[in-house]
Amino acid sequence: MKAGRKFRHLHRYRDIAAAFARNGFGVIVKELGLLRHIPFPRIPAEESNSHTRTTGERIRLFLQELGPTFVKLGQIASTRPDLIPAEILAELAKLQDKVPPFPFADVKKLLEAELGAPLSSLFDRFDETPIAAASIGQVHTARLHSGEQIAVKVQRPGIRAVVETDLEILQDLARAAEHRLEWASRFGIRDLVDELSVSLLAELDYTLEGRNAERIAAQFHDNSHVIIPAIYWDLTTRKVLAMDYLNGISIGERELLAASGYELRSIAESVAGAVFEQLFIGGFFHADPHPGNVIVMPPRPEKPGSGKTRENRGRSPDVRPVIGLLDFGLVGRLTPGMKGHFASLVIAMRRQSTDGVIKAIEEMGLISEMADRFKLRREVDLLREKYYQVPFSEISLSEAVNDLFSVAYRHRVKMPKDFMLLGKTLLTLEGVLTSLDPEFTVVSVAEPFGKRLLLERMQPRRLAETAAGYALEYAALLGELPSRLRGIFALMQRGKLPLELTVPDVDRIMKRLDRISGRLSFSIVLLSFSILMAGLIIGSSLGRQPDLLTRFPALEIGFSIAGLMFLYMIISIFRSGRK
Ligand SMILES: Nc1ncnc2c1ncn2[C@@H]1O[C@H](COP(=O)(O)OP(=O)(O)OP(=O)(O)O)[C@@H](O)[C@H]1O
Predict the structure, then answer these.
(1) How many CB atoms lie within 10 A of CB 23?
(2) Which of 139, 163, 428 has most ligand 1 atoms within 8 Å of its beta carbon, as the pocket-test mutant?
(3) Where are the transmembrane segments (predicted)?
(4) 166, 426, 476, 499: which sits with the fewest CB atoms below 10 Å from its CB?
(5) pTM over the 0.80 mark
């Protein structure tokens, strides 16, 4: 730990040490020397909760006592069922950062400084009592001079400095812990803290949240059943976020929803549909669909604010409720490749194919060189047996995600951050929706989206893109090959080529080349096959429209090229097989 930093943050270190002690972790910290040179506070036995609370509870209380940075750390850790035992995970999921609001005088001061004008000229009405107060910011309602009802999120004064100090301390603690504790380095807690730093610092910039909201809104461009509040950019800064006020009922208020005449099943379906649309289709997703962030609004013909409403006139009225999503501080991204792997994984699990599951996780590039494939296969087999003949609609998503993640953890399969967020999103979603309607199964809604994604991937245009992508990957790998080989030859010349080092290296390159070329030729075969099929279909319709060919001679050329390509691919595949 850097001494200067420690001295600067002495007060905070003492708070942390006291929180450790009060929650029964003092001994561990002291003995491991994590907070060496910090005067350790004496906590009377009756003030410690170590005998009255479970470990999970104490961890939750410890984090809650230390405020926003630690609460967020716990919330991020709660997205890691691969790392954290279920009992502790359940406690972390309860973490709330609701705190008393800060005074209106501070709100006014901050708004006027940030927006550069007196409050009365900015708003027609500004409600002094916030509708929600969290540790980073609080939300007020207001009305613009133009009449719109808006919600204004205002950042707590001085919060950035507090978070930055805590992050520095956490980085020091994580470094010390990894140095001394095997489990800490196994958990990769430094990575966890780095991950936390990135997402927490992003949450302190409300303009990023505004941009996330707009990106998700664009994904629902054609869906009038999902509303994302429009952002008022002229009233938004890094510390102020102004958006449409969504007037509805939180999805957590089951009784109120039922009493207001909503059908709970229909709400559950709409919310699951909205989430899967982001996961499988858009690829950019809201990763924190907890009840406070999902609200139900009465069916209405038009989306307010966004101006991107689909025309509804002339259609029979649609009674599905409208789902409003809020709070875009935590988002995940799935590249087209990841979406595809995810769909393949779901399909392989559904087909009970162990090889398919392993292939899918292999293709994600997740299996480390260290993994014991034999054991991994056996565990996936066990999972397969567990889910054997369980109807897809009865599978508990959270259990399946947990099972998969814990196998992944045991085999050191590295899950990318966005996959973790995907898992967390699914877990939160299932929790929220089953408490709304215990009979509802989330996967039943997932299936059509997965199929749609796979169908989309089989379209000739997509196949062409995929083939082009692999070709680029091929080219990049070939490009990097000479330098790698040069390196290997240099080592050989110097007689410093340990066999165990080079063989896996070359092997890895060859395997990758093999894989890419396999996929490349497969994609080209599919592509040319699709073009050929399209040619045949259009060709068969030419009988009815004989002038098409004369009008589009390029079609004829296209078919001939596609046919030749296809033939060439088949012949070369047979040839390479013979060799
Ligand atoms: N546009 C809005 N329309 C209606 N209510 C809103 C709106 N924005 C925020 N709220 C209310 O304020 C609450 C807190 O907002 P939000 O979740 O964005 O803040 P946060 O500081 O990120 O809180 P948390 O840490 O709980 O995620 C929401 O749960 C919701 O009840």
Answers:
(1) 23
(2) 139
(3) 520-542, 554-574
(4) 499
(5) no
